[in-house]
Specification:
single chain, mainly beta, Lipocalin, 11-stranded antiparallel barrel, two-stranded antiparallel sheet, about 5% helix
């Protein structure tokens, strides 16, 4: 087991991906587990990470299948509207600065500061019955978000066992990002109307994060890890009747396998499963923000210099079961650099 801890200490930079809590309207954010890289190590000191994540939500889905614009309008998730919103696409780009400090083998603190650039297009809410004119180019409205996101502060304790391979996590997400209805559509029929609260750079909520993780060598060259995490908003700034919004709770589970025969390059694969509860409030799309998704996430970390590593990961969805109509990606991708001070 001592050898396993040393190997995982060397792999502490492997796949230091942005936090799981990133949401863009629905159950579609990046779910790659970052704690396996950032926290599962007994090596003391500082580490700085800079990473870029790309998520292109370009397919409309319901349940476990794709959906059509005609379905959205003629069989809406909220029948009281007499139609439905036909979303076209959302492209999310996240640049995240991570600052990690481990004073001793038992404790670890990680600060994550994301910057969000998001473009969203929609044909707007169209009334029944559907006609092709409702998805004509002149019906497209666009909006752009370009702002600081919600900062996370996470603490890990892994002094439960002498081998230090079982840990507990407690953290908080702060409402530092722009939230509410501060960004408007800039063109199309919806020009001047506010963008959805769930598509803003922040949620306006303070969230508590709790989790646990375990890692273990399973052979001479392979390590396995398991992680679970729960996040819930405990306070929200948008709390006025008729103008309130609370993001839904999220639960994640990840299991991963690393091949560590060569410390200069470390391939890894993860299975990430996530469930999200509905957003709540007058500004929430309560019928189209619930779902369970699963991804296979292969990745690779390469040692560039003595203290510098580069890493990349691609997430490929293998399952989705979504309530209502939601935009969903064909893949997500993350690239980054990690430097030990």
């Amino acid at each position: 087991m001592v050898r396993s801890i040393n190997r995982l200490g060397a792999a502490a930079v492997c796949l230091a991906i942005a936090p799981i809590s990133t949401w863009a309207c629905a159950t579609c954010g990046c779910t790659v587990n970052s704690d396996a890289a950032m926290g599962y190590s007994a090596t003391t000191g500082w580490r700085v990470n800079l990473e870029y994540t790309y998520i292109d939500q370009d397919q409309l889905r319901i349940g476990t299948r794709t959906a059509t614009p005609a379905e959205v309008v003629n069989n809406p998730s909220n029948s009281a509207l007499g139609g439905g919103e036909i979303e076209k696409g959302t492209i999310n780009r996240y640049l995240t600065l991570g600052i990690n400090y481990r004073p001793n083998a038992d404790w670890n603190v990680n600060l994550l500061v994301p910057y969000v650039v998001r473009t969203h297009t929609t044909y707007g809410t169209q009334l029944q019955p559907y006609t092709p004119a409702e998805t004509a180019p002149d019906q497209i409205s666009g909006a752009r978000v370009d702002n600081l996101g919600d900062v996370k502060l996470l603490g890990n304790y892994q002094g439960l066992l002498p081998t230090q391979n079982l840990g507990l996590q407690l953290g908080v997400k702060l409402p530092t990002g722009q939230y509410g209805t501060k960004v408007d559509f800039y063109n199309g029929p919806n020009a001047g109307s506010p963008l959805d609260a769930s598509l803003q750079a922040g949620t306006g909520s303070t969230d508590v994060i709790v989790g646990a993780y375990y890692y273990q060598a399973v052979s001479q060259n392979f390590d396995i890890f398991l992680n679970t995490q729960f996040q819930s908003a405990v306070a929200h700034k948008q709390n006025q009747p008729g103008n309130d919004f609370r993001p839904g709770n999220s639960q994640t589970f990840s299991v991963g396998l690393r091949y560590e025969a060569n410390p200069n390059w470390i391939p890894q694969v993860q299975l990430n499963v996530q469930h999200k509860s509905p957003d709540q409030g007058a500004l929430a799309d309560t019928t189209d923000t619930v779902g369970t998704v699963a991804y296979i996430s292969p990745g690779l970390t390469v040692q560039v210099a003595h203290k510098l590593h580069a890493y990349g990961v691609v997430q490929v969805p293998i399952y989705s079961n979504l309530d209502g109509y939601q935009l969903f990606p064909h893949y997500t991708a993350t690239l980054g650099l990690s430097y030990a001070l």
